[in-house]
GCN5-related N-acetyltransferase (Deinococcus proteolyticus), 204 residues
Amino acid sequence: MNRDGLRVGPVRLEGQLVVLEPLRPEHHDGLVTAVQDGELWRLWYTTIPAPGEIASEIERRLQLQELGQMVPFTARRRSDHSIIGMTSYMNIDQQLPRVEIGSTWNAASAHGTGTNTESKLLLLAHAFEELGCPAVELRTHWLNAQSRAAIERLGARLDGILRSHTRAKDGTLRDTCVYSIVQSEWPAVRSGLEYRLRRHRSSP
């Protein structure tokens, strides 16, 4: 809970390209369609639910929300209102407050369209400007070069690497890269994200 008494909790965040809605069980069918777009669950270096696991994943995230440890979102593309993926605030410290943005995946057809960039802008803006977070964290697998590059393009800095931190779905041990953006860096990060979004937002 921040100094103004605002708790990190469910909220609807709207951009020009994407809307982040509080996750609900009725999003199930749309999420199944989204995860089938690119067969995302087959990626070995990340953990994305298969179509048959979406229901249990929704339940898991909502249970963590009840415990105050996660705020899960469904991402919906504004142009056609279709569901394109999931993201969340997680590992929440309600007292500081501090959040990690993670457990994110998007349909393959949404990649490169600006929706993920705008999602990050919405989540970071809410965390820094509404919740008063002094820092926001992002994590990824050491071997996930695409994700690491995307996080670094945000302007996040590498805090360190947690060696043999967790076990991946194939049983191998994962080294986790921990990045963060702090409050003083947020204005420059915001400017960078808005610059990258201009070409997508101006498209018909």
